[in-house]
Amino acid sequence: MDLTPGNISKYLYEEECRQIIGACYEVHNYLGSGFLEPIYQEALALELTNQNIPFYQEKRLEVWYKDEKLQKFYIADFVCFDKIILELKAVDGIVNEHVGQVLNYLKATQFKLGLFYKNVHICKNIYTQCLNGPYFTRYYLNCNIKMPL
Prior knowledge:
Elements: H1 14-31, H2 37-50, E1 55-65, E2 68-80, E3 84-89, H3 96-109, E4 113-118, E5 125-129, E6 136-140
Parallel strand pairs: 3-4
Antiparallel strand pairs: 1-2, 2-3, 4-5, 5-6
């Protein structure tokens, strides 16, 4: 999925993704790599605010069984635009456990889209839950582009 200007089309929440990824690039361009996740999280919260992107930080995601709210819950790093999970990882690579984490968040919220912001490769993977079943699709971003802000 190439998110350079002029190439954004036919993707779920494409304008919102462009804005979120642009904010991630701004943080990465300024801080570079080498910090722990809380540093990127705080900086990204500031950047999302500066760019007027609506978000919740460390959003509690409730899970329900029938009509009962379970005591267990998830906490997403960010929920943007009330419909996109944004999960930060200050790690070398996204592994199955990270993917499973975001897929759980999508299932708990019924959201259709989750993004990773990885300190080395911005938003490396996008996961989206299909509307008609428990199937998931992976899109790869071109991480070698520099987003204009």
